[in-house]
Amino acid sequence: MATRDFEPPEHVGVDAFERRELILVLLQTLSSLGLQSAKEKLEQESGIILEIEPVKKLHRAMLSGEWDDVPRLFDQLGSEATPVARGFRLLAGEQKYTEELSRGDHSAALKTLREDLAPAAWDAASEARVHRLALLFLSPKEKLVWPALRDRRVKRSLGDEETILWRGPDGLQAARVAVWEQVQSLLPPSLVVPPHRLADLLTQALRYQEMHCLYHTDGQLQTRGHTTAHHAHAQGPALDARTPLSQFSLLHDHSCTQTSLPTKCVCRLEKHFDEVWFVSVSNSGKHIASSSKDKTLIVWDAEPPCGVAAVLIGHSEACSYLAWSPDDSYLASGSNDRTVRLWSPPSAQCVRVFAKHVESVTSVCWMDDEHFLSAGFDKVIYLWHVTGTEVHRWVFPSRIQDTGVTGGRWLLVVNADRNIKVIDLQTRKDVFALPESDPVTSICASRLSNQVLVNISAQAPVIRLWDLQERRVRQRYFGHLQGRFVVRSAFGGPQEQFVVSGSEDSQVYIWHRHFGSLLEVVGGHASTVNCVCWPHLGAGCRFLLSASDDHTLRVWAAPSDAAVQAMARDMEAREAQAREAETRTHEQAESHEAEEPPPVAEETRPAVDEQE
């Protein structure tokens, strides 16, 4: 579907790079690989050393724990290190203080806290950090955590509990190495090479290849226990599955085939009796929830063949919206019957009914595990507690079409005035508005970044990607059909690198999020596709879901996956058996009718004759 012109790679030699910097990176890499003889040989031949003498002395002192000498050695680095002096003293003092507490030397620790750490704080964040360190006096010795290892989220299992506690010489040495790496990051590159420089450069190169791969659907790259994010300001749940760097080759460029997109239908869900308007996957990825014009909600198992886990009955009109709470304890549903109902799947019992709206409820979204918002055509948004308490309400001058919450910080409101209002949920006041010139039918807020998809219904329908921080349109997506109905789009893929949308031509459209390229048009439904859902990796669901006016939901997966091929064969076998059973039933019914004699027609007379 999408094509890109072939551009031969630009080949450059090592002469294109500054010689000294290249050799320093190689020296650091050889040292990290344990090739000390090769490192020393390269230093000897090139005349360039990895660490100048003052840096080498500081490095040696920190690894050996000579903390009383560390400030003096740092001062010997000269004026280049002066701008980061406070940060350095905080890092070094933090490690010194924790080691003194671990030895039970509380008097020395108190002196370090007063004379080293307190003067090193320069803002509210660093003062709060020093305050947390002071609280360690109240902690038992066995509960101490090396601060540097805590920041790196290093974990070790102790008994039945997963903890980040490190004790003994191994933990102490690992903490000192971690502190030195933090100091390396602080110091200017003219003094010391940033830690893991070659690995970082290779990671950036692989990330660049991944971002420019149109069909990439694997997880996030991972290295040294850290991950590289698409967006520095990304907010949302942590990602569980990630693609290790070891799966990417350094000897050839990375590329994925088109078969990695979810274009193969592996399951058809046909329990609804009317148009299916909404579909959503639980945050754990274990369940799918769908709502329909038939007034019911169905909770399905997420793994094909997607059996029915619960049928939720209670609404008296069509159900238009669903939202799972962040911890999946609740499922909130909005309906044209002017109510919001709270459920706790897989139980089919309604937990609570919220009935303050006086017109159809158009949207429901969660703030946290205990608070959610509901909006409707009555121009009101309510902030609810799950106990039924109304916490706050906003009143608008026109009907509300849709809402969304991004990063737990901003509430996005679509009403009839063609502006998307952005409200700060902490202050509960308007912050700014995103102007649109055409009617907005729905929005979808990213769970990994401060961006939002906006569906525009116009003569030439378009989906716009707005960046809330930059307050501008980052990309536009064309090709689908939308006119009479509400058609919803969504972010898709493990890292939300795709945009998917339903369409009034009964198909599902998939674009590349960053480039806007139309990658695939997936057919299979018999009527308008109202809603799509392709959860990111953190949700634990690898399928694309679509809900349609043809009364069905479809589950799509990548045809290149062997397990997917088996699922598709199972589905085809089940459908073939169902068709055979239906054919036999039909033939038996026709045979039975042929054996029975035709009934004798009785004389009938119009009612007017009876009266005569």
General description of the model:
With 612 residues, the chain is α+β, with helices and mostly antiparallel strands. It folds into 4 domains: 15-40; 51-193, no CATH class; 198-228 and 235-247, no CATH class; 258-570, Methylamine Dehydrogenase, Chain H (7 Propeller). The protein is built from 12 helices and 33 strands. Helices cover 27% and strands 28% of the residues.
| Level-2 CATH architecture of the largest domain | 7 Propeller
- Find the count of extended strands (DSSP E, 2+ residues): 33
Mean pLDDT: 83
Q: State the fourth-level CATH superfamily of the largest domain.
A: YVTN repeat-like/Quinoprotein amine dehydrogenase
User: Which topology of the largest domain does CATH recognise?
Assistant: Methylamine Dehydrogenase, Chain H
* Residue runs with pLDDT of under 50 for 5 or more positions: 151-166, 219-242, 601-612
Rg measurement, Å: 31 Å
Please indicate the percent range of residues in DSSP E strands (runs of 2 or more): 25-35%
The oligomeric state is single chain
Shape: globular
Instruction: For the largest sheet, list the strands in their spatial order.
Output: 6-33-32-31
CATH class of the largest domain: Mainly Beta
Q: End-to-end distance, in Å?
A: 76 Å
Helix content: 25-40%
Q: How many distinct domains?
A: 4
Structural class: alpha+beta
Count of helical stretches: 12
